[in-house]
Design a protein that fits this description.
Length: about 400
């Protein structure tokens, strides 16, 4: 029995996306910038995909800038704002950002920028009052992740964005894990910049997008031919972008029903594992991505085992899951996300994540819970457990 539960790392391209890509590769393979019929055919495909992605977040098509993925979209948001200033300014991020935000901001810090990293509570949420207190006269950009990929916590983006807008600072959010799983409406959400990724919503890898609110100034990272409204030079990866558009259109159509289904499965898995003394649920149970389940080990158990060892045993049993985020699961370093949430270094090495998707069934959830319990029982004979802090669980 093979069960894939790592949908936050990547999703299998859906048939509609594959069909769209095949049509581009065989029928619309021209350069969208060319003025002849082959180029015009490709340009139509490109703009159709732009409309489809825009509709997913209720944006105008002209506000969608295609990139190579979520990482490039995040970098374009951070550096595209920062490069407009000749002298260092002040930027605010959360302490639980994805590395695609954290690393560019570290670079800004080396260039002399002031950086404030907002603390989070035990569930991984930012307090809007902390943002209000952190603002300075030279605060030009605030970036807070919408849905945290390791622990599933959703941030109060509406409140944070409203504070940023009142202050006059630009507000960016990495919505890679949220798009296609929860409704996003940029006409009511107070965001100026928002990052998306194709392969998180059943499109192909290699495509992403940055929403740029009309009128928001931004400088490109790449010099070249001026494609994507001058913000992302380079011939567009049309097959991947077409698949992205097809996947976005399907996600929008299915969003409400699929979100409810995933929430039910997510909560069932949490309930099935609630009696496992070695596991501490992480993140916020109420403000949470609909497909996301995560745990760490108790302090006592963390002395005997780490998350990667459990992931390897689950893989041998035919179940795919993650330890930490997909971008950092190859290391044994403590998770900076769990550290920011107040967990100790030893416990922060034991984070585990099971993320659900379109092909996940109730039978998959029940089988996974049974196998995980058996693996934990075999790997960790009972010992006296320390008191558990379940946070909002």
């Amino acid at each position: 029995m093979q069960i894939y539960l790592d949908y936050s790392a990547t999703t299998p391209p859906r048939s509609e996306a594959i069909t769209a890509m095949q049509q581009v590769l065989t029928q619309a393979w021209g350069n969208p910038s060319s003025v002849h019929r082959w180029g015009e055919r490709a340009a139509l495909v490109l703009e159709q995909a732009r409309v489809q992605v825009a509709q997913l977040i209720n944006a105008v098509p002209e506000s969608i800038v295609f990139t190579s993925g979520g990482t490039e979209a995040d970098n374009l948001a951070i550096m595209g704002v920062a490069r407009q200033y000749q002298t260092p300014q002040h930027v605010v991020i959360s302490s639980v950002e994805h590395s695609a935000i954290a690393r560019p901001v570290e670079q800004l810090e080396r260039w002399g920028w002031q950086v404030t990293r907002l603390p989070v509570d035990r569930s991984g949420r930012v307090n809007p009052d902390d943002l209000q207190a952190a603002l300075q006269r030279n605060t030009v950009l605030i970036s807070v992740i919408y849905g945290q990929s390791e622990v599933g916590t959703l941030q109060p983006i509406e409140a944070l964005g409203a504070i940023a807008r009142y202050h006059g600072a630009l507000f960016h959010t990495d919505a890679v894990q949220v798009a296609g799983r929860l409704p996003i409406d940029v006409k009511t959400l107070p965001v100026d910049l928002l990052s998306l990724s194709s392969h998180k919503l059943y499109g192909p890898q290699g495509a992403g997008a940055l929403y740029v609110r009309p009128g928001v100034p931004l400088l490109p990272l790449l010099g070249g031919g001026g494609q994507e409204m001058g913000l992302r030079s380079g011939t567009q990866a049309l097959p991947a972008i077409s698949g992205f558009g097809a996947a976005a259109a399907c996600a929008l159509q299915e969003l409400a029903d699929e979100s409810r289904r995933l929430i039910a499965l997510r909560d069932r898995l949490f309930d099935l594992l609630a009696d496992v003394p070695e596991l501490i649920p992480t993140g916020d149970r109420l403000h949470r991505l609909p497909h996301h389940v995560s745990f760490c080990l108790t302090e006592a158990d963390s002395m005997r085992l780490n998350g990667r060892a459990i992931v390897r045993q689950m893989n041998l049993a035919g179940i795919g899951m993650s330890s930490g985020s997909a971008c950092s699961s190859g290391t044994l370093n403590p998770s900076p996300i769990l550290l920011a949430m107040g967990y100790g270094e030893q416990v922060a090495r034991t984070g585990m994540r099971l993320t659900l998707g379109r092909e996940t069934s109730l039978a998959d959830i029940e089988w996974t819970a049974m196998v995980l319990k058996q693996i934990l029982a075999r790997m960790m004979p009972p010992v006296a457990a320390l008191p558990q802090d379940l946070g909002n669980f």
